[in-house]
Specification:
The protein is mainly α and about 150 residues long.
Amino acid sequence: MLTRETFEEELKNAIRSGDDVRKRTIRMVLTSIKFAEVERRETLDEPELLVVIQKEVKTRREAIEDAKRADREDLIASAEDELTVLQDYLPQPLKPEELEDLAHQAIEEVGASGPESMGKVMQVLMPRVQGRADGKTVSTLVQQLLSNR
């Protein structure tokens, strides 16, 4: 189970082992967690922590794209190293066929008949795929499935 204390312990281990990339990445995650906790005025549970980690992953991916456009190999390498550390804390991603099965289940569950039902489907589907699939990918798949109805 993922908790804030898990990250604090991981930070201590990274400091002891001298792993600068892991130390830097976990510090950034802890900062984001603390910010989210202050914003919500409560301790985050595991699904909320996964959302924070996903935001950090998204930030690293955007940084990689920006660094590629700027032709900065040093920044690309740094962001990729951080991304590798972050992915250790995320659950295994869903396979495309698993995601499609979950999407079909959600569509049947809400009785969706076309693209106008996308919001209802997403509301049911996103909690099921939390941390295991990118929101943009899920949205694209649901649009595709609903447009065929």
